[in-house]
Amino acid sequence: MIKRLIGIILLIILLGIVVYSHFYPTYEIPEETKETGANLPQSEYEFYEGEEFGRHGDIIIREDQRLISTYDIEDIEIVYDYLDPADTSDYEDLLSIYISYIPKCSTQNPESFFETNREDIGNILGIYSYGEFLSLNKTLNDEGIDKDSTITGVKLVSLKEDKGLLNAHIRLFYGEATLDMSHRLDYVYFGTQPYLFIYSEGGGV
Amino acid sequence: MRKSHIFALALIVLIVAVTILDQFTGISMGKEEPEQVERVSVSELETVDSNRGELDITYALARIESKKSYYHYKDINYFLRAFFDGVNAGEVSLDIIDEEYMTFMGYDGADLLKPYSMLEAVDYDVTRTYATSGKVIVDLSYREIGSDTRYQRSFSIIDNTLADRPFIKVEEIGIKTESDDYSINLVSKGVFDKYEIYKIEIENRSDRELIVDDSMYGFNAIKGDNKYYHTLESAKLPYEIVTGEIRSFLIRFDTHNPEEIYVIIDGEEVRLY
Question: What is the pLDDT along chain A (205 residues), one digit of tens a residue?
Fold first, then answer.
């Protein structure tokens, strides 16, 4: 009698475990999904006086503290006709950040990705609507570029001035795959300081 | 071993097997993994340029972000550029214009182009931005490309749309002043950064033409010891209202929340508010 009771209790415990494991999954939601809003770096860099890196003297980073921070852009000298050296450096910075972010947009879940990252997508790519983002996402997927694709080359194909704006055409190489993108460079004064902005043109050329 | 023991043992083995399968293969009934939403941290954009090795983009980011309010200005400029692109193309997309503002002003797309009708291609610089009442007001100077003559204008950015004036909001009023000859409805007011525009409808109920004083005194307002005279914001209208007509006026006073508002109609000053 006691043995039967023990058997029944064991069965009930096991059934309980099965039911519990069905309704309460054990895997954890990835940390990233818990974040909301922008996560742009603020002051996580160490700045030292003395050896100066970069322009304007506004940021001082000890040279041995850094790795290369911009892509080697073929034919970048095209911009010399339009931008002075300081603005060319800005453009290289902006373009490198832009290029780095593009493969991340190859997500298979574009709508959720756009909603989660829309602030950064606007900040970095200058894309503000889901339709434009979807166009870029489709182009990336059509070209077989995914978030882990490694850039093997960057070429500034052309730069044309139109009513005070510069329309740029760049070609990105990911091994065999290439991606043609166009963007506008907008140079506007806010107060006494000039600002250079990149805005994507509909996720393609 | 009894049959019942064998059955119980087999049942236990089956349950354990299902539990293991359930945990390790994800085969389950009604249990789905939560949707994976990728959050790309911009600070982790270190990447590889096969020509140059490892890149650390955070330094490029740091240099860009060291410019005051860089991304905030980029957002603002997106709407301004879209607007002036439209001006230069001869058609402004109404998708970027605040709907409440357009409705209140009674504007259509052509009205947005009027201030620039004499200019060939327009470019601009932002002279100042500031926040007021939850809206971003943008003062800018614009000019025809190649010209040294500059013009000033203020815009506002409202919930991812733009108004080509420093517009803040519309407030409904709905105060009527009536007589045998007319009905005057103080319908609503548009609140702007440094002034207000009142929408006033006057219905002529008489059998003769009513005349509103067309001088600056025709509509006036009082606040404290100060008196404010109007400017007409709607398209140039005759101030005469024929029998049965309802005429809508957009009247601007360069103050906020005046205590009294008057109209001079048929030579008589009538208090509306």
Answer: 666 777 777 777 767 766 665 555 444 433 333 332 333 333 333 333 333 333 333 444 444 445 678 889 999 999 999 999 989 999 999 999 999 999 999 999 999 999 999 999 999 999 999 999 999 999 999 999 998 888 999 999 999 998 888 999 999 999 888 999 999 999 999 999 999 999 998 544 4
Backbone angles phi, psi at B64, to 5 degrees: -65, -45
Residue B72 has phi, psi (to 5 degrees) of: -60, -45
Query: B165, B200, B220: which is the final residue of a domain?
Result: B165
Domain count, chain B: 2
Which of B5, B29, B36 to mutate against chain A (most A CBs within 10 Å)?
Answer: B36
Q: Which residues 4-63 in chain B show a CB within 8 A of chain A?
A: 4-5, 8, 11-12, 15-16, 18-19, 22-23, 28-31, 33-43, 45-63
- Residue B228 sits in the same domain as residue B247: yes
Last residue within a domain, chosen from B165, B198, B214: B165
Contacts of A26 (CB under 8 A, 6+ apart): B23
**What's the CATH architecture for A69-200?**
Roll (3.10)
Do B139 and B192 lie in one domain? The reply is: no
Q: Write the DSSP assignment of A67-92 as a string of letters.
A: -B-S--EETGGGGGGTS-HHHHHHHH
Output the pTM of the full model: 0.75
